[in-house]
Amino acid sequence: MSCRARGHEGRRQLEGCIEQDLTSQAQPVVDALSKAGLSVVTAESCTGGLIAAILSHAQNASACLHGGFVVYTKTHKHAALGVDENLLGTQGSVNAEVARQMAEGALRHSPASIALAVSGVLGPNPDEDDNPPGLIYLGLALSGRPTRIIRHDFGRIDPDEMRRQVILNALNLLLETVHGT
User: Fold this and answer.
1) Residues forming beta bridges with residue 40, ordered by sequence position
2) Strand partners, 44
3) Which residue did the predictor score with more confidence, 6 or 181?
4) What is the chain's Cα-based Rg?
5) What counts of helices (H) and strands (E) characterise the chain?
6) d(C-alpha 61, C-alpha 75), whole Å
7) Is the Cβ–Cβ distance between 99 and 113 less than 8 Å?
8) If you placed Cys at 43, which of 85, 100, 106, 120 could pair as Cys (CB 3.0 to 4.6 Å)?
9) Residue 117 has what pLDDT?
C-alpha cells in the first residue's frame, strides 16, 4: 500500500497510513520510557490497536514496546485479559472498573512495567449498553502502584477526531506517568 500526503485541517495526513503528527508525539514517550528503563503494553478497545501502532513508529520502540492487546468485544476482554464476566454483563464494557481490569490484566499477561488501557464509545451512536458517544476511560497500571483511571467526555464529535484525541491523551498520560516515576 502506498501513502500519499494530503492536507487536512492544518495537519499533514497520509492516506492509508498514520498521521505524522501522531507519530511525532510518540517519540518523546518512547525516549522517556527507554531513559527510565520502563516498558509498555497496551490494551485497546475503541482505538483498535492504534496506540501501540503509533508507538511502534518511534525510533527504538522495540526497546520499550512489548505490544498490545486488541480487545474489542466483551468476550475477548474476558478471555485475553481476565476482565470479570459478571461486571461486563451487568455494567457493560465502558466504565472505570473495566478500564482498571483491562490495564491490570495486560500488565499480568506481559513483562511490561506499564500497561495502558482504553475503552470507550466513538459513536456516532451509543454502544450496546447505551453508553453515549464520547465516553472514554483510560486506565494506566504501573507495577507496584495503584492503577490510575481517567474519564473523558468528548461529546458528539467526529469519531475519527475523537479517536485522534484519545490517542493524544493516552500518549500524554504515558509521558506524564514516566516523568512522575
Assistant:
1) 65, 114
2) 70, 118
3) 181
4) 16
5) 6, 7
6) 30
7) no
8) 106
9) 98
Domain count, the chain: 1
Q: What is the pLDDT of residues 105-153, one digit of tens each?
A: 999 999 999 999 999 999 999 999 999 999 999 999 998 999 999 999 9
Q: Is the peptide bond preceding residue 126 cis, with omega within 30 degrees of 0? A: no
CATH code of residue 135? 3.90.950.20
pTM score of the predicted model: 0.90
Provide the domain limits for residue 50: 19-179
- Whether 10 is in a domain gets the answer no
**pLDDT confidence tier of residue 9, bands split at 50, 70 and 90:** low
Phi, psi torsion values for 90, nearest 5 degrees: -95, -35
Within a domain: residue 1?
A: no
Residues 6+ apart with CB under 8 A from 160: none
- 3-class SS of residue 64: coil
Distance CA(134)–CA(156), nearest Å, equals 6
